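anyone seen this seq b4? input:
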Amino acid sequence: MIDRIGRAVATGAGRALGAGMATLASVRRPHPVHPHGVVLHGTVRRSGTALRTGIAWIDEAEPEPIRVIARASRSVGVPVPLPDVVGLAARFEAAEGRADLQLASTGAAWPWRFALLAHRSPSRAHLGSLLPYRSPSGPVLLGARTLAPSDLPSHPEQLAERLALEPWRLELLVARPRGAWHAFGELELRREPGPLDPLLRFDAGRHPLPGARQYDWVRRLRQPSYDRVQRGAAR
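predicted toks r here
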């Protein structure tokens, strides 16, 4: 009974979010959310972690760098210098196929790791997955925090100029929903020549990290809005 109620609540909330996203997509294209961003390129190196999740891609070290393409963005699109929710999405190719990682600025401690928080600088934001992944050992959250530089600008064009000169280094993190954060790798991003913000779509639900899975209630909650955005952008 509790499971059925939970699925029904998640389904209803997901449909409501999807409808809202469709309305927003009709007036703000191609990005109804995260409208202003910059595309970056870089690498991820995995160092492994003492927190055994059962997901080998997180648990096991792999010193060979993996190429990634990423997009840093301001989620709501309020004018700079007002604070905004910071978004960071990254994509890479694994043996299982495409994998997307999507993070947004949240709190680091319980329960604020499940709440979006606005920041003026990406450097000062704790970035989190907000919703848990399903691992063989139970639910886990992913996150990232800046190692350097400590004063990145928020405006996409200024951020692009800065990251053309020096890389953005982030520590990749994993945690239980109420547990401490543990490092498992490092993400390094740079700005390369090319368009500032070509159209890229990320979907961590359909393209999760290797070995990670999505809870049914998470899928019901998030996927309708992602699907509405994808369809709206294709029109």
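The mean pLDDT is 85. The longest strand covers residues 61-74. kinda curious what u guys think
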